[in-house]
Write a structure and sequence with these properties.
The chain is an all-alpha fold. It has one domain. It is 45% helix and 0% strand. The chain has two helices and no strands. The longest helix is centred in the first third of the chain and has 14 residues. The termini are far apart. InterPro entries: CobW/HypB/UreG_nucleotide-bd (IPR003495), P-loop_NTPase (IPR027417), Zinc-reg_GTPase_activator (IPR051316). This is Metal chaperone. Pfam families: cobW (PF02492).
Length: 58
């Protein structure tokens, strides 16, 4: 990921990058995302879920 903070500017990029990684290799056991104290992790989790479940926000 080039430049940016996952909590405010590149959320969509994060989902895209993780999707590409999962396509290129076997299943991950875990994905660790280290953030600063400024990150809104609930927002990140909601975005990830929305990417996998379009009905999540409807």
């Amino acid at each position: 990921m080039n430049n940016g903070c996952i909590c405010c500017t590149v959320r969509g990029d994060l989902i895209h990058i993780l999707s590409r990684l999962m396509y290129c290799r076997d299943k991950f056991d875990r994905i660790l995302i280290e953030t600063t104290g400024m990150a809104n992790l609930l927002s990140e989790a909601n975005e990830e879920r929305a990417a996998n479940d379009p009905e999540w926000f409807s």
